[in-house]
Amino acid sequence: MNVLVATEKPFSKEAVEAIRREVEQAGHTLTLLERYTDRQQLLDAAAKADAMIIRSDKVRADVFEAAPGLKIVVRAGAGYDNVDLEAATKAGVVVENTPGQNSNAVAELVFGMAVMALRNMYDASTGTELRGRRLGIHAFGQVGRCVARIAKGFGMEVSALDPFCPDSVIEEAGVKPVHSVEELYSSNDVVSLHIPATPETIRSVGYDLITAMPKGALLVNTARKEVIDEDGLAKALADRPDIKYVADVAPDRAAELKALYPARVFFTPKKMGAQTAEANAGAGIAAARQIVAFFADGTRQHQVNK
Ligand code: 3PG
């Protein structure tokens, strides 16, 4: 089988070599398409693929149309909002993700950005500490749980909102469950976003929630830019000069917001949460193994388009 790794933002060299070993040891071949700049390159490469490993690469109906032999797409990572699941199912293609592999990397970046923001982007002025501050985790999935673990080391008071996670699981992690978004935002100095981008969550965090946050609050977004209502964010930043926003997923209005509030907003130039050697290897190898298992005996443990 031909396994295509199609990554506009490439994995580390070591991760690619590890993926190659997994694929070739199982008797398959590996094709690499990295840093492509033109969608046609993706479509041409997909045309010969039986399986694909992708990251945030957009896999829509055009890819399935161009790839008649395609049987499985594995998103090496957690969020699969970049894959059109309906089109995949229609084309008879299995879609999987690799949950948990990027979680620690993303969680560490939350704190990297939080410290930078609370130290005023290292502009030499007096900042504040994380110790003793209240952290609200918006969604207690794999990343949220890593964030809670690290927050304890910083001496933060941690609460979390997750309607899909039982209170007992949240409590077992030493975290206080909260039951409404209003409570989460109004009662925390720092809120860290970990909700996926779905029709229900897109633009769900806007003016009301952001301005409900206490004085000097910080909102950290390592989830998806789409979950933020950007007009609401812009208005909240204008009305509340004490609030800061840092994101691993630059908003569409990034340039404008950076120009207006250089000491209060920060955006990574490209999504960096999962861009560590460890996460690249973890997610890449998991994706390769899932494909090998799928072709060996039909295993599809992490299928997301059931
Ligand atoms: C994920 O959903 O796992 C992260 O957002 C990582 O995305 P990336 O593979 O594009 O870095």
How would you describe this structure to a colleague?
The chain has 306 residues and is of the alpha/beta class. It has two domains: 2-101 and 275-297, NAD(P)-binding Rossmann-like Domain (Rossmann fold); 103-267, Rossmann fold (3-Layer(aba) Sandwich). It contains twelve helices and twelve strands. The strands form two sheets. The protein has a seven-stranded parallel beta sheet with strand order 8-7-6-9-10-11-12, sandwiched between helices. α1 (13-25) links the parallel β1 and β2 (29-34). α1 (13-25) runs parallel beside α12 (277-297) and α5 (103-118) crosses α6. The protein is elongated. The site of 3-phosphoglyceric acid has 11 residues, from loops.
In summary, what is this structure?
The chain has 306 residues and is an alpha/beta fold. It is elongated. The chain is 38% helix and 17% strand.
Key descriptive features of the protein:
alpha/beta, 2 domains, elongated, Rossmann fold, 38% helix, binds 3-phosphoglyceric acid, five-stranded parallel β-sheet
Question: How many structural domains are formed by the residues?
Answer: 2
Q: Report helical residue fraction.
A: 25-40%
- Find the structural class using helix and strand composition: alpha/beta
Uncertain residue ranges: none
The overall pLDDT, averaged over residues, is: 98
Distinct small molecules bound, one entry per kind: 3-phosphoglyceric acid
CATH fold field value of the largest domain? Rossmann fold
Q: Could you give the count of β-strands?
A: 12
Q: What is the CATH superfamily label of the largest domain?
A: NAD(P)-binding Rossmann-like Domain
How would a crystallographer describe the biggest sheet?
Answer: 7 strands, parallel
Termini gap: 23 Å
Query: Can you count the helices?
Result: 12
